[in-house]
Amino acid sequence: MNRLPSLFAAAAVAALATAAAVPAHATDGYFMSGYGAQSKGLAGAGLAYPKDSLALATNPAAATALGDRWDVGVDVFTPKREAAYRGTALDSSYSGDDKKTAFIPEAGYVRQLNDRLAVGLVAYGNGGMVTAYRDNPFARFGASGTAGVELQQLFISPTMAYKLTPTQSVGLSVNLAGQTFRARGLQPFAGFSQDPAHFTNNGVDTEYGAGVRLGYLGQLTDRLSAAAFWQSKTAFHEFKKYRGLFAERGGFDAPSTYGVGLAFKATPQLDLVADWRRIELSKVKSVGTSLAPLFAGVPFGADNGPGFGWRDVDVWKVGANYRINDAWQVRAGYDHAKNPVPSSQTLLNIVAPAVVTDQYAAGATWSQLSGTRPSGLEVTGYVQYSPKQTVRGSGSIPANFGGGNVDLSMSETIFGLAVGWKH
């Protein structure tokens, strides 16, 4: 176990180095559906069912239930995004998939200090959105070059958890975060900004922020566990290069989120899990404010300036994990999330078409045996699939942009592989 901190540190450095070079993506709004390969095989469920150290990324109280272990994983993300004009003088469709594949790393470490106290550290991509249109869908309004945005968020969360009783635990994580953003090809909207020079095509901007996460994990009966968490808004410094685009002169905080979960041991081999979570996107002005203020004379970049018009997202998750024997476990899950993009807000969301609502997942874990018992080494793989979802615009193109509508479509597939070691 004395080598685990250095192994985790190497993985965290790799995650930090990679985060600036590859796009992060998500399925629940712009959040990841879950953290850790075993949870992702359950479609992100498992607040009350921690399986690996990345469980701390949602519920810090899980640290008391995991023993000593570390985990390192990588996801391979392949989305398909499309925007189509309808009812305009020139109806046409555009693909936002010029960047088709992303590799997203994550790593976690947890250690029990005594019978009641545990500590941990996790590094993970919180979420993001990347679109790349080789043919600029805003060219009809005077844009030039390629179009798209790249938003990426990386969190590193030192964690401490404490057992109040042998069956009840609480935990606290401090979220230390960095995010990068770049926008291209949005020139037609810059004239509606209070700072047009800092609206688009200004390269990559990087800012940092912090927040906290609280968690609870309890064994209610021999067969039933419950959990809850709350994560504060992560307050970031404003994007200076894009202070003319985002409300509050470049403000872009990560929204607060909270949820509850249950885990039920149906049989000695079969565990059932269910979670509900809420992501408060509407409370981040640059994300939740609609275009409506623009028509009342409020420019982009102002304190109450227009934004992407996203709604809060409720997410429901269910899953099942089955232990075949000491060496093999298999699992499957389903995730349903509310679409955050209203039909009236599809024009600006051409560059952020996060409209998928359903996700199906399956996975398996192999544990190396020493004799007839697990030796400590685990290898986990999973796949998640979100079928194509389309939001048809309704009154989404203002009259001074010619009227008509924009329809947004997105689907995605994610594969992942992780290696873990438990003492």
From TrEMBL:
Which residue ranges does UniProt annotate as crossing the membrane?
A: none
A single Gene Ontology CC annotation of this entry is: cell outer membrane
Membrane topology label: Multi-pass membrane protein
User: Predominant location of this chain?
Assistant: membrane
Q: Where in the cell is it found?
A: Cell outer membrane
Q: Does the keyword Nucleus apply?
A: no
Q: What keywords are annotated for this sequence in UniProt?
A: Cell outer membrane, Membrane, Signal, Transmembrane, Transmembrane beta strand
InterPro entries recorded? OMPP1/FadL/TodX
| Superkingdom classification of source | Bacteria
Q: Which Pfam family, giving just one, matches this sequence?
A: Toluene_X
Give the signal peptide as a residue range, or say none if absent: 1-26
Family according to the record: Belongs to the OmpP1/FadL family.
List the protein's name. Long-chain fatty acid transporter
Q: Which organism is it from?
A: Phenylobacterium soli
Organism lineage string: Bacteria, Pseudomonadati, Pseudomonadota, Alphaproteobacteria, Caulobacterales
